[in-house]
Design brief:
mainly alpha, globular
């Protein structure tokens, strides 16, 4: 009996120490987890701002370039990837930590990464050029309508490559945002003043469809690369996935400028720019900077959420651009543009709410698991 009493006395303090230690650890984990969750939503908001602002402003500058006398297909493809040098200072601020470097056994080899950069760079250069041909040979309404098809394309590729789960809210977001862009495109008037041949129209149509599908494939493959190949949780990974492919795409566009002979017409194009040479140069420079900001937002959303979410945000910019054009280019604002914008916002909020539900569900699941661990 004395031995039994002594055993109980010895066990109680040990049990108390164990519970106290678990409680202390749990108390330390909860604030840290809340901070991480708060930081995640801040990053998502920042990436959304970068994507929408960069895409809308760059698109407006692209329209300004064509309206004021620009006509180079390879130059419009070049400026979409030529802003990569501004990323160089960011590498010094977002270097991978030593803890991540210690797990080098899980990281892909350099040869694998180089092959990935080359593949994405070539795909990006081809995609930019096809969009340039589509913009040149198609009316704006037709071009916008076909470009909006990249969201359904991305939904298909996300389902096949990334096992994207489609809830009612996600499906609602995809359908509503696509209808919004299509409604805007059908309502828009053609800005093509010259009569095109049937062959040129066919080339523009095929190139735009191929570009939309290629862009959707590009986004889905990026998400697959982040999850299956790089397996890194640092912003440095996102920067590299922007820097090296856009560097290679820019080199391809420079080769295209020389091979096509357009390099010889750029001087005349700059001299004939209606707003002057300085305005011509500033248009190209700021277009490159804004497209790079757009790339940061796009890849950041793919890295943090999914390629489909990134494409939903990007498609949200299609009805936003005409509203901004009313302010900066004094375009006419009608009821269809307002409805298109409201539909796009509805689809956007549906997708954001779905991510909020997923985040809340994951948070409660982790909390239940932690409570179960403490109990045992």
């Amino acid at each position: 009996m004395a031995h039994s009493t002594q055993q109980v006395v010895l066990q109680i303090p040990e049990s108390n120490r164990q519970i106290s230690g678990d409680d202390t650890n749990q108390q330390q984990k909860i604030p840290r987890k809340s901070n991480i969750n708060y930081g995640w939503w801040c990053r998502i908001f920042l990436y959304i701002i970068c994507l929408i602002v960069g895409q809308c402003a760059a698109t407006l500058l692209g329209r300004f370039y064509y309206d004021e006398g620009g006509n180079s297909k390879w130059m419009t493809a070049f400026v979409q990837s030529a802003g990569f040098p501004i990323l160089i200072p960011l590498f010094f601020f977002f270097k991978s930590s030593k803890k991540n470097a210690a797990s080098s056994l899980e990281k892909p080899s350099r040869s694998t990464l180089y092959m990935i950069y080359v593949f994405f760079g070539l795909l990006l250069a081809g995609d930019n050029l096809m969009y340039s041909y589509g913009m040149l040979y198609l009316p704006v309404s037709t071009f916008s309508l076909i470009s909006a098809s990249q969201l359904p394309f991305n939904a298909l590729f996300s389902l096949l490559l990334n096992a994207q789960k489609f809830t009612a809210l996600i499906l609602n977001a995809v359908v509503i945002v696509t209808i919004s862009a299509a409604l805007l495109a059908v309502n828009s008037e053609s800005e093509t003043s010259t009569k095109l041949s049937a062959g040129q129209y066919a080339i523009g149509f095929i190139c735009t469809v191929a570009a939309s599908a290629a862009y959707a494939l590009y986004l889905s493959l990026l998400e697959l690369t982040f999850k299956r190949v790089t397996k890194s949780e640092t912003f440095d990974t996102v920067l590299k996935m922007i820097f090296y492919p856009t560097l290679l795409a820019s080199c391809c566009c420079v080769v295209g400028l020389y091979a096509s002979g357009e390099i010889r017409t750029l001087t005349a194009e700059m001299n004939g720019f209606y707003k002057g040479e300085i305005s011509y140069l500033m248009t190209l420079i700021w277009s490159s900077v804004l497209w790079t900001i757009c790339w940061i937002g796009m890849l950041g959303l793919i890295f943090e959420v999914s390629s489909l979410f990134s494409n939903v945000i990007g498609t949200l910019g299609l009805p936003t651009v005409p509203v901004l054009a009313v302010i900066f280019f004094h375009d006419k604002m009608d009821g269809v543009k307002v409805i298109a914008l409201l539909l796009a916002l509805w689809g956007f909020l549906s997708y954001v709410y779905q991510n909020y539900l997923d985040d809340s569900k994951a948070k409660s699941s982790k909390s239940e698991n932690n409570e179960a661990t403490i109990t045992h």
